[in-house]
């Protein structure tokens, strides 16, 4: 199964991606996580990406597209994958389509997780992420069992640098201008599905499984 997750910052893409990737045994590919790993390892890519990310801007398309193509060529993507946070511009979507087309593959579904803006700020400012494995928590909605520690790997939980109020506003603005057009792009291809991302995490996941079950048939 080849899936794209679409949705505004804080919609719950990373949270749901983890559950989907476990249930359907497909790799979870998050461009944001790839950039954050490079930032923590201070690689040239990380140094380049950091200035954009800290300001809530998109990393340039040429850089991002190259990274995703390399990742999709790895063996574990042969039977499917879940893209989280990519594509984010029409240019990225077109590059992905042409790459998959060249490899005689196609996306099965672009799944939009829709969350109204008024929910987003509280989700982002209360988010804590694992510094080791990237898992997302929330101080109120999804707390870890031991405060400040990841349930999965015991890593320290930290706040993302781009989760401040000002940067979140910029990221929402960037989403509206650059990523929102992809909803129509995938509607036109007849592969868009949407679920409401409000309510409990497990309930949202149930809705997603219903959609993906139908796609799988
Ligand atoms: P990225 O890391 O992709 O960030 P994002 O798209 O802004 O989305 P987030 O990761 O912030 O939110 P999410 O939807 O994953 O929500 P989560 O599950 O964590 O990108 C970061 C930056 O990298 C970009 O700004 C850009 O600079 C760069 N970048 C990445 N990809 C790029 C690309 N393709 N091109 C160019 N640049 C790129 O949930 C959020 C919080 O809500 C958590 O605390 C969670 O516990 C909580 N939560 C989740 N579900 C629920 C629920 N149902 N109810 C209550 N709380 C919930
Ligand atoms: Mg995420
Ligand atoms: Zn962890």
TrEMBL record:
List cellular component terms (GO): cytoplasm
| Reactions it catalyzes | AMP + ATP = 2 ADP
Please give the chief subcellular localization of this protein.
cytoplasm
Q: Where does Zn(2+) bind?
A: 130, 133, 150, 153
Q: Which Pfam families match?
A: ADK, ADK_lid
Protein's pathway: Purine metabolism; AMP biosynthesis via salvage pathway; AMP from ADP: step 1/1
The UniProt subunit note reads as follows: Monomer.
Entry's family note: Belongs to the adenylate kinase family.
**Region NMP: start-end pairs:** 30-59
| Zinc in keyword set | yes
What GO MF annotations does this protein's record show?
AMP kinase activity; ATP binding; zinc ion binding
Keywords from UniProt, A to Z, are: ATP-binding, Cytoplasm, Kinase, Metal-binding, Nucleotide biosynthesis, Nucleotide-binding, Transferase, Zinc
Which parts of the sequence belong to the Adenylate kinase active site lid domain? Answer: 127-162
Q: Where is this region: LID?
A: 126-163
Recorded domain comment: Consists of three domains, a large central CORE domain and two small peripheral domains, NMPbind and LID, which undergo movements during catalysis. The LID domain closes over the site of phosphoryl transfer upon ATP binding. Assembling and dissambling the active center during each catalytic cycle provides an effective means to prevent ATP hydrolysis. Some bacteria have evolved a zinc-coordinating structure that stabilizes the LID domain.
Read off the PROSITE patterns from this record: ADENYLATE_KINASE
InterPro entries reported in the protein's UniProt record:
Adenyl_kin_sub (IPR006259), Adenylat/UMP-CMP_kin (IPR000850), Adenylat_kinase_CS (IPR033690), Adenylate_kinase_lid-dom (IPR007862), P-loop_NTPase (IPR027417)
Biological process terms in GO annotation: AMP salvage
What this chain does, per the entry, is described as:
Catalyzes the reversible transfer of the terminal phosphate group between ATP and AMP. Plays an important role in cellular energy homeostasis and in adenine nucleotide metabolism.
The record, for HAMAP family, names:
Adenylate_kinase_Adk
Stated EC number for the protein is 2.7.4.3
**Binding positions for AMP?**
31, 36, 57-59, 85-88, 92, 160, 171
What's the protein here called? Adenylate kinase
């Amino acid at each position: 199964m080849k899936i794209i997750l679409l949705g505004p910052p804080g919609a719950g893409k990373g949270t749901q991606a983890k559950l989907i990737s476990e249930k359907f045994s497909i790799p979870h590919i998050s461009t944001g996580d790839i950039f954050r790993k490079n930032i923590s390892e201070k690689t040239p890519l990380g140094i380049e990406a950091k200035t954009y990310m800290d300001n809530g801007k998109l990393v340039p398309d040429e850089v991002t597209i190259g990274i995703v193509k390399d990742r999709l060529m790895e063996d574990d993507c042969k039977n499917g994958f879940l893209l989280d946070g990519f594509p984010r511009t029409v240019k990225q979507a077109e590059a992905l389509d042409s790459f998959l087309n060249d490899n005689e593959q196609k996306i099965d579904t672009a799944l939009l997780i829709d969350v109204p803006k008024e929910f987003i700020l509280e989700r982002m400012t209360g988010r804590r992420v694992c510094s080791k494995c990237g898992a997302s928590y929330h101080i109120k909605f999804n707390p870890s069992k031991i405060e400040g520690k990841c349930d999965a790997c015991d890593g320290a939980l930290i706040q993302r640098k781009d989760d401040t109020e000002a940067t979140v506003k910029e990221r929402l603005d960037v989403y509206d201008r650059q990523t929102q057009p992809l909803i129509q792009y995938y509607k036109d291809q007849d592969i868009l599905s949407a679920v409401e991302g409000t309510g409990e995490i497990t309930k949202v996941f149930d809705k997603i499984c219903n959609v993906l079950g139908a796609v799988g048939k």
